[in-house]
Amino acid sequence: MLVVGEQDVGKTSLLKALRDEDFDTHESTTHGIKIKWLVTALLQGLSKYI
Ligand SMILES: Nc1nc2c(ncn2[C@@H]2O[C@H](COP(=O)(O)OP(=O)(O)O)[C@@H](O)[C@H]2O)c(=O)[nH]1
Ligand SMILES: [Mg+2]
Fold first, then answer.
1. What is the pTM of this model?
2. Is 4 exposed, middle or buried (0-12, 13-18, 19+ CB in 10 A)?
3. Which pLDDT score, from 0 to 100, does residue 50 have?
4. Tens-place pLDDT, residues 1-50
5. What is the 40 CA–ligand 2 centroid distance (Å)?
6. Would residue 5 count as lying in a domain?
7. How many angstroms separate the CA atoms of 29 and 45, rounded?
8. Domain extent for 43
9. In angstroms, rounded to a whole number, what is the distance separating the alpha carbons of residues 23 and 50?
10. SS3 state at 46
11. Distance between CA atoms of 10 and 26, rounded to whole angstroms?
C-alpha cells in the first residue's frame, strides 16, 4: 500500500493506527519516505499454514 498526500493530512497517523500503534498529537514530519511492514488480515490468516 502506498500512501501519498499533502503534508500534515495524517498519512503517518493513519498507518500507525493500522499498525495498532499509539496516536501522537505531536507527530514529527516524515522526511522523504518511510517504509514499514503492515500485516494484513490475509497474511494473518495465511500464517497458520506457514
Ligand atoms: N485531531 C486529529 N489530528 C490528527 C489526525 N491525524 C493526524 N493528526 C495530527 O495532524 C498532524 C499531522 O499528522 P501526520 O500523521 O504527521 O501527517 P502526515 O504529514 O501526512 O504524515 C499531527 O500533529 C497529528 O497528530 C486526526 O485524525 N485527528
Ligand atoms: Mg508523515
1. 0.86
2. exposed
3. 62
4. 899 999 999 999 999 998 889 999 999 999 889 999 888 777 777 777 76
5. 21
6. no
7. 34
8. 11-49
9. 32
10. helix
11. 11
pLDDT of residue 30: 92
**What is the DSSP code (8-state) at residue 33?**
-
DSSP state letter for 49: G
SS3 12: helix
18 domain-assigned: yes
Which residue has cell 496516536?
A: 23
Cβ–ligand 1 distance for 25 under 6 Å, the answer: yes
The pLDDT value given to residue 48 = 72
Judge whether 4 lies within some domain: no
Which chain residues have CB less than 5 Å from ligand 2, an ion?
Answer: 12, 30
Residue 38 is predicted with a pLDDT of: 85
